[in-house]
Specification:
The protein has 355 residues and is mainly β. The chain has two helices and 29 strands.
Length: 355
């Protein structure tokens, strides 16, 4: 009987892993979010439908219960924070939006009560009130930081927030009041990034969190680098630094992503005047989050890669290119190396996967 139950559970698990996934991409210029079906076995991507909106959607954020998607909405008027409900078949239903006092994208607290965002142009970090998966229109807090905040992330236990700034090469850190959602600057308000002239890279840009350990990864946009940092109740501490390019070359890394099995880490590089782009692949210790080594660099024809996401099986990586207007799909091999599968002429934007 026990063996039958085990077999049944394995069968259910295998089916869920191999089932088609929902692939969403925001299309700011077309005022919509498109939905595609991704075959988990073959990687085939097929258009399904789209959610029409009255403004251009920005970064997509999945709610903690995985039943809603949040996104900024930009138009000639004030920016808004919108919500779409995910139907049983994966289709999206727009359920409402409220005006934000300033634009920008961000992330949601683990309990869904607060939306934390940054504004690149206004050099601010804000906390918005959320109720029933909708922004209430109330801004709880706004903090002036320094030049060009470029991302925001929340620790695994919801107790701290981190904000990289590539303008002045600083990684800000805050404690979070769990009752009010307010950000409280830590005793050491920020970490200063490396000296570009000494290391060859600088300028904190984008974050990714290890899902189990208190480890966060951050790209260095200027020159081409990535850092791993540990954190505890006292804040961040630099752990490791690696280059994302060949010696003597300078690139402009953007975002960063981990595979679901926590074995590999990927960073897309813009090549600037040289043209084209590359993706740096790194091997991780899945238990500790330590970066073990760089696996390789994989060139492709994109210009200005920005958004990147890895599917839930960990077999496929997608990255979108602002200037070429395409989304590129790679196969992730068992050793973490990449093979370009296809250039999808579907435009570019923020990407999100859901089983």
């Amino acid at each position: 009987m026990i063996y039958k139950i085990q077999w049944l559970l394995l069968t259910i698990l295998s089916y869920s892993i191999m089932a088609d996934q929902h692939f969403y991409i925001s299309k700011k210029g077309q005022n919509c979010i498109e939905k595609y079906s991704l075959n988990s076995k073959t990687g085939e991507l097929a258009f399904v439908n789209k959610l029409e909106l009255n403004a251009g959607p920005g970064g997509l954020t999945l709610s903690p219960d995985k039943q809603h998607i949040y996104f900024s909405l930009s138009s000639d008027g004030p920016s808004e924070l919108g919500t779409a409900k995910i139907q049983a078949n994966g289709d999206l239903e727009f359920i409402g939006s409220s005006i934000m006092q300033s634009g920008g994208s961000g992330t949601i607290s683990k309990d869904g009560r607060f939306y934390f965002k940054y504004n690149y142009g206004q050099n601010t970090v804000s906390v918005l009130d959320m109720q029933n998966n909708l922004h209430t229109g109330k801004q709880i807090q706004e903090i002036k930081t320094t030049k060009n905040p470029h991302d925001i992330g929340i620790s695994n236990d919801d107790s701290m927030g981190f904000v990289p700034h590539n303008g002045h090469n600083r990684l800000y850190q805050f404690k979070i009041d769990r009752q009010t959602g307010k950000l409280i600057p830590m005793t050491t308000p920020y970490l200063k990034g490396p000296d570009f002239n000494k290391k060859g890279f600088a300028a904190f840009r984008s974050l990714a969190f290890h899902p189990l350990e208190n480890v966060v990864y951050c790209t260095y946009e200027r020159g081409g680098g990535v850092a791993s940092l540990k954190y505890d109740e006292n804040g961040l501490k630099l752990w490791q630094e690696f280059s994302t390019t060949e010696k003597g070359q300078k690139v402009l890394p953007t975002v960063i992503a981990l595979t679901p099995n926590k074995k590999f880490l990927y960073v897309p590089n813009r090549h600037g005047k040289r043209g084209g782009s590359s993706i740096a692949a790194f091997k991780l210790n899945p238990k500790t989050g330590e970066i073990l080594n760089r696996i390789g660099l994989y060139d492709y024809s994109a210009t200005g890669p920005r958004g990147m996401a890895i599917d839930n099986t960990g077999k496929f990586l997608f990255t979108s290119s602002v200037k070429t207007g395409s989304t590129y799909q790679f196969k992730i091999n068992e050793d973490g190396s990449l093979k370009l599968m296809k250039e999808h002429k579907i435009g570019c934007g923020s990407i999100l996967f859901l089983n």
